[in-house]
Task: inverse folding
């Protein structure tokens, strides 16, 4: 079965309490539940992991490499400077979709640049929690296309 790793970076454990104007009112558990529901209808397996530490996100990614078929990631502020995380995503060798709850292109200048963007297949920003399920759906389609092309 297709397996997708969903990574949440720093401060996303505070969803629901954190700046609801930008990040919405759902908690991280609520978001992960919606991801799991969508995964069930798509008949894929997902694992969600959150950490406030770049190294822990990298450790998780490295441990799962070889078992996973794709990654959905909201790296939080690491998006803007997390070069070790970027390298780990590249090294994973699987397609990556970058997600942001808020529209990072309509906020402060420092949020507009993502060091992960050219590593990712694509980016979804500004759609709130729905960005994760949209990313999952896109990624599953991309993985299926890649597999069909390989045969
Ligand atoms: C975020 C945007 C980042 O700039 C910010 O540091 C976050 C969340 C988002 O989901 O909109 O922590 O990735």
Result:
């Amino acid at each position: 079965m297709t397996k997708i790793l969903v990574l949440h970076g720093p401060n996303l454990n505070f969803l629901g309490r954190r700046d609801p104007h930008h990040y919405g009112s759902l908690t991280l558990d609520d978001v992960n539940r919606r991801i799991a529901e969508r995964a069930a209808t798509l008949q894929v397996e997902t694992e969600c992991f959150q950490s406030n530490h770049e190294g822990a996100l990298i450790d998780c990614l490295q441990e799962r490499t070889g078992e996973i078929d794709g990654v959905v990631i909201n790296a939080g502020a690491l998006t803007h400077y997390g070069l070790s995380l970027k390298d780990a995503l590249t090294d994973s060798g699987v397609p990556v979709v970058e997600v942001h709850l808020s529209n990072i292109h309509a906020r402060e200048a420092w949020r507009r640049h993502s060091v992960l963007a050219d590593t990712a297949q694509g980016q979804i920003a500004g759609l709130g929690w729905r960005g994760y399920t949209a990313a999952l759906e896109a990624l599953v389609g991309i993985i299926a296309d890649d597999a069909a092309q390989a045969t």
Q: What stands out?
A: The CA atoms of residues 139 and 145 lie 10 Å apart. The helical segments are 20-23, 28-42, 54-64, 83-92, 130-150. The mean pLDDT is 97. The pocket of DQA is lined by residues 11, 74, 76-77, 79, 100-102, 104, 111 (CB under 6 Å).
